[in-house]
Amino acid sequence: MKKARIIGTGSYLPEKVLTNFDLEKMVDTTNEWISTRTGINERHIASENEMTSDLAVNAANRALEMAGVTADQIDLIIVGTITGDFPWPSTACLVQNKIGAVNASAWDVSAACSGFVYAITSAAQYLENGAAKRALVIGTEVLSRIMDWEDRNTCILFGDGAGAVVLEAQEGESGLLSGHLHADGSYWELLYQPGFGSRYPASVSGIEQRLPYLHMAGNEVFKIAVRSMHDVAIEALENNNMTVADVKLLFPHQANMRILEAVRKRLKLRKNQMFVNVDKRGNTSGASIPIALDEANRAGLLEEGDILVLDAFGGGFTWGASVLRW
Ligand code: ACO
Predict the structure, then answer these.
(1) If both were cysteines, with which of 207, 242, 282, 322 could 43 make a disulfide (CB 3.0 to 4.6 Å apart)?
(2) Considering only the top CATH level, what class is 3-172?
(3) Active site residue: 93, 113, 155, 256, which one?
(4) How sure is the predictor about 1, in pLDDT bands with cuts at 50, 70 and 90?
(5) pTM of the predicted protein model
(6) What CATH number should be reported for the domain whose range is 177-325?
């Protein structure tokens, strides 16, 4: 059976950088509090005229260039995002049009911070069963537009950005070995954006109640995220008859440093087995794993045959892990 192999990666971060010191001037917080509690020092923020699809297009073009593939050779686009340009149509359709992927079907996945792992796992199924030859999988977010910039509990955590991979169906040992996805919708209220959908349609009072912004019960998210990211990474490795000793690099969703360290310690991974960039990127939700993957790839950290694990957790709750041989 053919495997879905990553033949190109790309990422894009908006130019503007917001530091913890900038945040000190915006809400009642300090650089010291943010860096010790979260490990985040700065994050990128999209400019007023940059949309989620623009970030995605920049990342996608870089991935296509590395792959040596033109947009018309792509037959599937899946975008993981919770901050699309519009509630609908999908951001994937906007990307399809902007890059000229005239032969591709296109759809979004809404799985919050697990969006990319959900998307790449889905795309791999198409490639493995012959329904598509080449797929473009993107994680892209402009979270700054759904941040309550008066809420110090949340606005310090998140950043904007996009990452993309080009997948091709290939014979051989390299590619996605397996994907493991989970959800538990009973936790929806711990991390969500209340407005504006069918439950709370658009209204002036809704804006006054801060409904169009991200709401989060941070402490509860923390505990379940650590447990779930650990469990699904082990599930994915065991499914491939592997242990943590086989892993060259684990790419966790870059939520915050304390979550990442807790997952690393539970998994008994060495520090150099986990890729971390949350200090400079913040939490970019569905974009965090493909940005990290591209940064590691372009830094020359990945060699053919390496075993990599993508490990995500996010709103829904959703979580999942993929094992791949580079
Ligand atoms: N600056 C200063 N003080 C703050 C800030 C801030 N930015 N934010 C909160 N505080 C205060 C609180 O008001 C509270 O004050 P109080 O004791 O007077 O009430 C105090 O700091 C402690 O608040 P806690 O919420 O208990 O702080 P905690 O140490 O738990 O850290 C954090 C909060 C970082 C959000 C933590 O719960 C966490 O990491 N949660 C995970 C959430 C997360 O990363 N979500 C991302 C989305 S989900 C995902 O990506 C997996």
Answers:
(1) 282
(2) alpha beta
(3) 113
(4) confident
(5) 0.97
(6) 3.40.47.10
